[in-house]
Amino acid sequence: MRIIAGQRRGHKIDGPKATAALRPTSDLVRESLFNMVGEMMPGRTAVDLFAGTGAIGLEALSRGAEAAIFVEKNRESVALIHGNVARLRYQDRAQVRLADAYRWVRTHEWAADQPMAVFLDPPYKEYEDHAKKIRELLDQLVERLPAESLIALEAGRTLDGEILPDFEAWDVRRYGDTQIAILVFPGPEGDAESSDSETGTEGPSEEAGDV
What we know:
By secondary structure, the protein is α/β, with parallel strands linked by helices. The protein is 31% helix and 18% strand. It contains seven helices and seven strands; from the N terminus they run αβαβαβαβααβββα. The two termini are 18 Å apart. Mean pLDDT is 87; it is low at 192-197 and 200-211.
C-alpha cells in the first residue's frame, strides 16, 4: 500500500496481515475518491471512521488536511494505524481513537466553525447486518457537521435512499464492484451550488468511470 499524492506521495504504509479480517480500500478506488475531494482537504480536519489501516486519513493528511482523527475498534488495527502514522511522521497531526465508530459519532462534540471531511468505509457485511445503524450514523453526521464539511462513504452494494439521507444531494459513483457516495455541505451562506461546483458534478450518478 502507498500514499498516492501530496506531501508523502509514494511513501509505503503497512497493510493488514494475510490472516486479518480487513478489506483496505484499493489504491485505485482511493485515488478515484481523492481525485474528487483531494483539493478540498486544506482547511479541514479528516475523520477516518472504521479506519482499518488508516490509509484514507493518511492520504487526507498528505493532501493538506490540518489534522486527522482515526476511529477504529480493533486493537490490532489501532496498533497498525499508530505504526503507519509514525512511519509518515504525522504524530503531531493525528489522533488515534480505540472506539466504536457508531458510539464515537454519537458522543463526539463537533466544533461549529471547523469544516470536517468524514470518511466511512465500514466492513461490507455491516450493510447486510446493520444497514439501519449506518443510516442512523449518517443522519447524525448530516445533522451535526458544520458548514462546508463533506462526507464520503464506500460500500460494496448499491447506495440508495435506504442508506443515504436526502439521496438526491449525494454524488454516487461506481468503480467496479465498489460504490462511493459524496455529500458536500453548503457554506454558511447556504450556497446550494457549492456542493456540485467543488466536486465538479451535478448530483448523483448511477455509474461513472469504472476502474
